## 1
Amino acid sequence: MDGVPTPLRCFNEFHSAEMFVDDGVESVTSVEQKKVERSIEEVISVYKQIHSLPQPTLLREQHYQYLKKGLRHLSDAYECLDASRPWLCFWILHSLELLEEPIPAAVASDVCQFLARCQSPTGGFAGGPGQHAHLAPTYAAVNALCIIGTEEAYNIIDREKLLDFLWSVKQPDGSFVMHVGGEVDVRSAYCAASVASLTNILTPKLFENTTNWILSCQNWEGGLSGVPGLEAHGGYTFCGTAALVILGKEHMLDLKALLRWVVSRQMRFEGGFQGRCNKLVDGCYSFWQAGLLPLLHRALFKEGESELSRQRWMFEQQALQEYILLCCQNPTGGLLDKPGKSRDFYHTCYCLSGLSIAQHFGNVDLHHEIILGREENRLVRGRRTFYHIYWSSIIYMHLILCNLLLLLFYNICPEKVAQAVQHFLRLPVPDVNKQPAASAGDRPEDSASTSGSADHQS
Ligand SMILES: [Zn+2]
């Protein structure tokens, strides 16, 4: 398949038959859906006029320049993300690693020093210097430091205090609040499990009851909601599922119901994913939704499912690439939600992450690529080690590589996860008998609110 120009879906005469039909009942939602489809039709029509060959191009150089500039300078438009600054570091650094662009040592060191200033004296990281610790920027900061992967980066993380912070946000029912005095949702369990496992401070006691709490977020639709009883949502579903994988309990989900829900979120005409039933397509769900399919593939494989493909994930990988490459690229760099929206670092990171998933299936032995367009569109095979273990499960079952199983769920490239895990496994787990000092969620402290992935309510 490599390098062979593939016919584009949008060049097919039957493509327009996939457009939304409202059965004569117009609603606010149907009007919006048709508007988006028209804008995509326009993009496709322009593409057809300019290009006779179906070779959509990933604008690597433009994305690189946009990302590089973002590490040093942000426009006024980012003022509203003042409480999400570690996220900006993570989104940019992860995008650069997917593009296989090295981070200059001086820049890496500056990012380390900045993140050090975001670390709270009480443990965990805040959205900016002098703010309160919060699980979302803690996840972003730990990931960013692991991507940098230097001794300087690792040594910034105060693991003992990080564990204190995690205990301070743990709730008796197994859930976590995002920050002391803050809200509970399934993102927090994922952020806590992710940073705890990456830095080797994960203890069974810390995650007591967490599995059951996350399982209670899976609803009748098959996906997971932010808290029990609400609507299923792509961001929360990824967070909950990935947290369960980290805890080794994903088999307790209704996997078939989850599979049915997520594959139904890929849009028939657009090719990208929506976040919730009856919502519009959005580039960032290329990761939150498509990222669930490798997790489900592995979980179903472990459950003995014999009908699984050894060449493809269970979604239309080419259609997703087509959506990202044709509809989500800003010609001057950066990626976006849908045509007509502005570029930003969040969508750049998650569109590229989704593109990588859509391009690569399998492992070293069974690796299968579907690269739409030019060879240069190939992103780093971000999850190679994970897939390798997935297909060769009896080979690598000692402790370090068990941790490597988790790498898909951090959304960091595998070599960096391996390096971080090896580094932190050499260090002892701080006081495994540690207990919560008090019911932290009841403390009346005020706290800076920091946005995380699933705050994006598309
Ligand atoms: Zn989005």
## 2
Amino acid sequence: MNFEWNEAQLSLFEHALSYSSELRSTSHQPGEFPLDLWKSLGDFGYFGLPVDSEYSPCGSGLDILTTVKVLEGLGQGGADTGVLFAGAAHTFACVMPIYEHGSEAIKRELLPLLTSGEKIAANAISEAEAGSDIAKLATTASREGDYYIIKGAKSYVTNGSVADYFIAYATTNAKFGYLGQTAFVIPADLPGIEVGNSYKKLGLNSAQLNQVFFDEVKVHKRYVLGDEGQGARIFAASMDWERCCLFALFIGVMQRDLDLCIEYANMRKQGDKTISKFQAVSHRIADMEVRLQSARLLLYFAAWQKSKEVDNTKAVATSKLAISEAFVQSGLDVIRVHGALGYLDEGGVNSSIKDALGSVLFSGTSDIQRELICNRLGLL
Ligand SMILES: Cc1cc2nc3c(=O)[nH]c(=O)nc-3n(C[C@H](O)[C@H](O)[C@H](O)COP(=O)(O)OP(=O)(O)OC[C@H]3O[C@@H](n4cnc5c(N)ncnc54)[C@H](O)[C@@H]3O)c2cc1C
């Protein structure tokens, strides 16, 4: 066992940290998608971190552990968490399924556009009646010659209003349940697609979240990912990526919040003492450290297992659960340590709790992660 990062990995981490710190001051309209920031992240190489350069000049071909470390740096640097989240949804739930399951022609056509950030993708699986349980998707795809006709509505699609492509999942054979679902790349300019207004939500505000409607959208068969019937497997693989890599961003955000707490506790005085000398405050910060380090090690283990191509369902679910729940607690603690200042926008620390609450829902809720863990423990 070796807990050390090599020099190349550390220098990539430092680069991500300083790049993200520089983006911290970039301002944009609240709730709007910051295209300039997106482009800067494209220039950094965010959207092609694990993609081989054979498929795109923006691909870095990093292994998953190094990818995780770079994402930690981006999260810690303080660039807008909403756009980092949007980038992770694009990269890990869209670019990676194309990279791992697309035909050679589709990979060559789309990966250069998507890894540079010139084009944006959105993952569309959730439906009104299929959130945690996606066994029965009401969206259907029926074959007509060389085309599929897609019909249905997706309820929560990150990047929906800015997407050039959707990775959408539809039922091709209802008799087979999970094995009757198929994954499609759907160009967003095809006739019959309508995107709802962006939802107003609690956090991650620059990431757009929309309903998407497919009304008899005619998609060529070359846009099928993998084979017909492999949709559920492809989605599960994309969640493996997302649950590791997206949540690495939040490890970085928690590290930043912890550092801010230490700095503030050592500076802020009540009476003649800094508040760090009050055990209630210092123990709260010690607990933040324990939760962060535990979640971080679970993430590294899950990513390491993924790189070994063994069944890592339990490790990934454990890591996702630990990170998102630690993120919520850390978001509360950073406000408590900063007192009233923490509650104010000008204190600069009240956004984490708003971003963190979403993290216990997307990529499978905390309850669903517990179900996955129980399943692997032989309890279900
Ligand atoms: C910010 C954000 C971004 C999102 N982005 C996307 C996206 O890009 N693409 C996409 O397709 N979806 C996206 N989603 C949707 C997300 O994946 C779903 O919200 C999530 O899967 C839960 O589904 P639901 O909201 O329908 O809740 P439900 O499934 O209705 O769950 C409601 C409650 O019941 C619990 N529950 C449900 N079933 C079980 C069970 N079997 N065992 C135990 N507890 C259970 C849940 O844990 C939860 O507490 C996003 C959601 C959010 C909040």
## 3
Amino acid sequence: MTDLHQTITGFDLWHLELPVTSRRDHGIGSVEGSCEVVILRLTSEDGTQGFGEASPWSVFTGTPEATYAALDRYLRPLVVGSRVADRAAIMAKTAFAVAHCTEAKAALETALLDLAGRVSAVPVWALLGGKCRDTIPLSCSIANPDFAQDVALLEQLQVDGVRIVKLKTGFRDHAFDILRLEHLAQNCPEFSVRVDYNQGLTVEDASEQVRDVAQFKPDFIEQPVRAHHYGMMATLRGQIDVPLLADESVFGPEEMERAAREGICDGVSVKIMKSGGLSRGQTVARIAAAHGLSAYGGDMFEAGLAHLAGTHMIAATPEITLGCEFYQASYFLKEDILEEPFLVQNGKVIVPDSPGLGGRPDLDKLDHYALAKAVAA
Ligand SMILES: [Mg+2]
């Protein structure tokens, strides 16, 4: 029976280490061997369960250890004993329980939405305002320091129908970036190409290198310089005739408002792990749109559960028009954690219509990959 007034009684956590298939380099750091995520499970009085994922990256948003502690110690007391219906009140209190820790807050809101959706028998997108799209074009990132391995990946993407790639630049040297752009232009003309520096350029080098890259006419160039270099972002934006995207410079609505006011970008990468949840991610996209700026569905090193959360957010947010990059479950993790695969068909993510997130983790996999857990017997 639908009962949003029932109490949340269970709050369980797993800190997972998930093996990955390849090394990936970025302007601000590398990922090799594995990535770490934190999974939250909420249980209500009638036994209904909702799941959420936090996907921190230590050089970008924060650490898995801080995420786990934020949930276990500081957010748990806001949730246990509250009603399923009280999602907005719980999320409002999180700001006063722990600073930052946006990935922990994203996991909490995801689990609250999944739980409310399953109790009400509606998909999460219905709780976020309704659906504006059934599929989302998928972008896969090209970030392997061994470009031969990425050439093999490109061949696989072609077969799979993926038609957007994002080239990670600024981690070795400019010649390597140009070589790979030339390869894409000559050998893979069917791909729409985006470029992401992940803050990799110095203020001294940025103008020359970004202007070179702009000559390849990518869809956009993302975050060439450090997150706090707002003035340099605005300068670079004026020097090129392709859109400049902000990622690390914009976490939540507060930075989006400042970014728009200071004219640092033509668009923004919206990530629930930066904004601190799906609702705040929607707000980022709406502020951007109000200023005539575009929005892209970015992600961190996520498993399929976080992909599902991002999928529902984008499905309910018409302002996010540039597709998504939820590729890790399909192309990066050795094994995803979901019971059923995260659904991508012909290069497009399929928006689920079943209750809640439309997918849940395999509990045996959570236990298998756990470095730590706090699970009631
Ligand atoms: Mg980025």
## 4
Amino acid sequence: MDPLGFVSEISGNWSKPPSHIVTFASEETKLIQRSFKEAMTTQVRYFPMEKHQIPMEYLTVGFIGAGKMAESIARGMVASGLLPPHHISTAVHSNLSRHEVFQSFGVNVFSSNEEVVEESDVVIFSVKPQVVKKAITELRSKLTKDKLLVSVAAGITLKDLQEWSGHDRFIRVMPNTPAAVGEGASVMSLGTAASEEDGALVAKLFGSVGKMFKADEKMFDAVTGLSGSGPAYVFLAIEALADGGVAAGLPRELALGLASQTVLGAATMVSKTGKHPGVLKDDVTSPGGTTIAGVHELEKGSFRATLMNAVVAAANRSRELSQS
Ligand SMILES: NC(=O)c1ccc[n+]([C@@H]2O[C@H](COP(=O)([O-])OP(=O)(O)OC[C@H]3O[C@@H](n4cnc5c(N)ncnc54)[C@H](OP(=O)(O)O)[C@@H]3O)[C@@H](O)[C@H]2O)c1
């Protein structure tokens, strides 16, 4: 008899309630457990016998916090075909409009954070940094060792995450806003019990909304100063380039379109050719030409030193905030 039929028969003939049926998890039984739930609406408890990776097609991911970052990542996972939307869940806190937002692309919206955790193999904490401790401690009893935990909260260390959850299979990720358009730059650092396979899984999940890098946690303030705050610096640069275009006689719309596409094109050249940006700059500056005249003005205005100072100032501020 197939295992599902077997348990179905036991639960039908046995005097104990179905919640007393226990299955020991291996990759196979974990999948069967899901079938039980669907077929019998019964509770079958799950005891991990060993740490294992669940195949991607059965993986479930839950977000604690139904905000902008959770939405970006969930949308990316669905749009890239990595996970079907019904394998993703979240719960709405107080802003009820978030319910519709997540349901509009097929994500399960449960009525509590507890349910999200119960249904998820990977739990991503995506609440504001000041709420993380409360959210984790309230869920602590549900955070069983078979679950991989992830936090995207800025400035919250792995040490605190592990202490609050009593769980050291934790991964800290620092994403950035372009994740919303599938071009995020995320950095991750692994907690003490997170395996290389766990890291590879999280890289795959966040890879659906951009690029994932790995770094020691002590670099996270610098990461915040560069990729975390960096989009704002580039927004300023695009606005300023467009203003320059307008000053030189272009209509505003054309100037803005050219400025943003130029930044996108230049960034893509750096990442696709693998050439050093200095080499690419040299390639486009002909002797006595227009571009070197512009570059000369940027150097007179300390363009590069100003950008370097901006990254260092933001990194310092991140350090201050995480210590306060
Ligand atoms: N956005 C970014 O670009 C970015 C970049 C890097 C890192 N992050 C990190 O990502 C995290 C989320 O940021 P966000 O921009 O997505 O913020 P957000 O849009 O404000 O989302 C936070 C969500 O958490 C919900 N929430 C509050 N208390 C909760 C609780 N106890 N249980 C469950 N949900 C609760 C809020 O719901 P209500 O509004 O209904 O209260 C809100 O939907 C932050 O820690 C931030 O540091 C964000």
